[in-house]
Design a protein that fits this description.
Distance between the termini: 9 Å
CATH class: Alpha Beta
Strand order of the largest sheet: 2-1-3-4
Structural class: alpha/beta
Helix content: 40-55%
């Protein structure tokens, strides 16, 4: 098994966004690899954001049954719940790296799950955020982390 990799909401959303075929292909490749290796990690925040986005914000939104099946499947990745320690850690990251609150929560959750890689195109590719390195999954091939 490869090391655990934290997946940001945008990667999950692009998996279902046919309006962006190149990003959809890359997201599918990354997620397939993470499923095969049992290496995907996420948080309940990511699942909430994913559900709202794919059911309400995409041009070709998913029906709720399809979206709920996807969320149930992703719950096998043992999502990180928000608690007082996660919030305290996120505040530290927010201040130290001048992150948005929501991004700081994502990085704190990645750290909680011992992920040294965070797949996201919302943050700066290659940036090290307290031991969590941001990797843009749309400019980096999934095989490169083996």
């Amino acid at each position: 098994m490869i090391e655990p990799i934290f997946v940001d909401t945008n990667v999950l959303v692009y998996r279902f966004d046919a309006a962006k075929p190149e990003k959809q292909r890359a997201a599918k490749a990354w997620l397939s690899r993470l499923w095969e290796r049992r290496a995907g990690r996420l948080s309940y925040q990511v699942l909430r954001e994913f559900y709202v986005t794919v059911t309400r914000k995409l041009t070709n939104s998913l029906d709720t049954d399809h979206a709920r099946r996807a969320v149930r499947s992703l719950m096998t990745w043992n999502p990180v719940p928000s608690d007082d320690r996660l919030i305290e850690s996120a505040w530290d990251l927010e201040d130290r790296y001048e992150l948005s609150w929501w991004d700081a929560l994502i990085v704190a959750a990645a750290r909680r799950q011992s992920c040294s890689v965070l797949l996201s195109d919302d943050l700066q590719d290659g940036q090290d955020l307290g031991g969590v390195r941001v990797v843009d999954p749309f400019s980096t091939d999934s095989a490169s982390l083996d």
